Amino acid sequence: MHVTLSVNGTEHALDIDPRTTLLDALRDHLDLTGTKKGCDHGQCGACTILLDGKRINSCLTLAVMHEGDAITTVEGLSTPDALSPLQAAFVAHDGYQCGYCTPGQICSATGMLEEIAAGWPSHVTDDLEADPALTREEISERMSGNLCRCSAYPNIVDAIAEVGGAAK
Amino acid sequence: MNRQQTDIALAGGRMHQSLAHDSGRKHVSGRAEYIDDIAEPAGTLHAYLGLSAIAHGEIVSVDLDAVRAAPGVVGVLTAADIPGENDVSPPHKHDDPVFAEGRVEFLGQPVFAVIGETRDAARRASRLAKITYAPLAAALDVDAARRAGGTLVTEPLTLVRGDVDAGLSRAKNRVSGRMTIGGQDHFYLEGQIAFALPGEDEDVIVHSSTQHPSEVQLMVAHVLGISQHAVTVNVRRMGGGFGGKETQGNLFAAVAALAAKRFNRPVKIRPDRDDDMIATGKRHDFVVDYDVGYDDDGRIEAVDAVYAARCGFSADLSGPVTDRALFHADNAYFYPDVRVRSEPLKTNTVSNTAFRGFGGPQGMLAAERWIEDIAYALGRDPLEIRKANFYGQGDRNITPYHQTVEDNIIDRLVGELEASADYRARREAILAFNRTSPVLRKGIALTPVKFGISFTATWYNQAGALVHIYRDGSIHLSHGGTEMGQGLYTKVAQVLADAFGVGIDRIKIMGTTTGKVPNTSATAASSGSDLNGMAAADAARQIKARLEAHAARLYEVPADEILWVPNGIEAGGRFVPFTELVASAYLNRVQLSAAGFYKTPKIHWDRGSGRGRPFLYYAYGASVSEVTIDTLTGEYQVDRVDILHDVGRSLNPAIDLGQIEGGFIQGMGWLTTEELWWDEKGELRTHAPSTYKIPLASDVPPIFNVNLCDWSANREETIGRSKAVGEPPLMLAMSVVEALSMAVASVADYKVAPRLDTPVTPERVLMGVERMRAGG
Fold it and tell me: Ranges for the 2Fe-2S ferredoxin-type domain (chain A) (predicted)?
């Protein structure tokens, strides 16, 4: 089946099995291997990418569903010389160990900060009407879909808090 | 918050500096290459395993015709296709087949592999096999294995000091009990994977996600029936290891290599997450039966304990794992008379393997259990009982394996943590809270860790490094250690940069390969930087000596007037940049390459007599955890954790703090939420993150004060006087179990020890509360 995917600003025409997940399309057909396959079940978050700026597990969606969508992977967040603020903060805070979950964490955090800015509440938000504050508790809750088996969580939260300008 | 922060340097090259992880920029930008990211050459095939459907039985027939006929299938491999030995047993016991032959011994055991043009084709075809079995009785856990006759997978160990029977009968007070300790799945985010490329003659290159490239090399050679020199194993980094890639990568590498040579095409194998969890080994579950004698002050007089482990169907590393459990049956406590025995039981489950701590955590968790028993029996704060039993300085310092504890800092460390965490006042406040709180109850506990550092297999305590300096002054570093996120590559590069006085950017850290450094040990036992750091330092020493001699000749100054300064040398007062020194050395035919070597001194171990000095030194730490439980539901949260941990003189404080925080959280997962559950047929039902819960960001305690013990320096001559950090912090999580126990005990006014088994899930907390209400 033909599909044209717009990934990191570049259009790619693909001829793929309609059952191909977006994750496999990125990794196996477009050689964008920054996005990782952890569980392939939508339960670990390693494959998180941004779809029109919203975070999504790319293993749980089919590539052919995304003709015309703006897909951003970790490779699209920076150039090798200029990291995004979140990427730089992860380096400065040692927000990883083995690094395998890191692209997913970075994409997820990028989308998450937008969700907070847009006023989306979370499970731990007290007041559903007010703008949510970027507390450690909010960050931890909102990032709980991205597993880090090395448990670099304290540093991941530090990095996100710094970029989000959180009160510590 | 009192969490130690450290400014992370992006450039530099000294030991003891908080230098950023060498792959940091690549990790955050998705450019760090894992094995599944390596560009596949044209013609790459994909292998998938066919797994057994029953836990124990004779294989009556295997019909793979439908597998072979499936679209996209290139071929099928079974035991009959193995030219060498059908065995990947790490201790070479011939009990760990690549493909089951004749019988299957656990549900999920590989029986065949299918090789396809795509991973999808191979995976679909693997489901088409028709295998019939004649089922046999399956023993799935310790109790069933004992009932079935107690077959052991390997030789058990007994450690004895003193006369335990006399000690027990002399003791005024006695307590006996049983503790059941659950296992743990590694859940490395990057699953097992191997990618093999065939070469000429018998050659094969295998990219393997392994902590032990030299063993993968040996295993592939055995399976293919070729010499080790024909096999090259490479690993640049792993997406997590935690012990799960110490031996468990062997089978995948062997299958990939076998298929690559058979079909003369590159072959990759990467199991699905569920199959990875079903078919690969985990941390050992233990059942510990104990009998302890103690006096009225809570001082232990004698300990008699049996540590029975579910080992699965084969030995794998169960011998050394159960040995290490016994080596930590004392944790930080002196036992005047002691006898501890291991019982490594064969079960019809996946073969248990290494996992961070390697039996040590289970050993010391049982010790904390009987400390708690004593405290509740005497109506005392468990911390008082712990202190009363700490190893002494100068006396009361002999372990059950007859090693003298020479570097004991536990009193000072625990004293400092007790003060900084405000343990006493908080305990009083919690006791007051519990007196008036009808539903929510709190608990607090301080537990120590003393962990022995060195491989107990003495010959493993060796390492090599290969250092080249090229004529442009750039440095190439190889060593036998592997990088799984623990920061080993960064630390060893710091050692080398420090030795030459250059920035780390001058050093290229090479992926680990058997072609550069041979006969390496697993990156395990927390030993990576101890061993490989010293080997790299040895290589640097050799090259520096040659450069000094060269400079002395060239600049006509005595060798002792050559000084190493940042980015060069001073020769008789004149500064010579490093690049200039190297360039002139090359022109003067000075060898700019060296192989470094290190073997750990002082250690020896006689397993037969149970005596020796298996450990060069000990790493210490302690933690205080505070929890709140809901006595109606069993749900709980960990409110605050304080940690003080000893890494000697830290090689890299940022990396060490990360290891401590991550180790604690991973240990907390093991002891609280991570429950492995097999059904009565022996099928693992917790084989994905949907049913197996590892800690999330939101599980980190909201107050998490982690500090390095800044006054500690290793009394042994380790690299930079540092101490190993990989495993010890995992055991800091024991204080969570003890704190939960106190909260549960409050229901019965602390009269009865709750004896919570692990993992302490909310269900177990609730059952504990119910037991307390029923009078214990």
Answer: 1-77
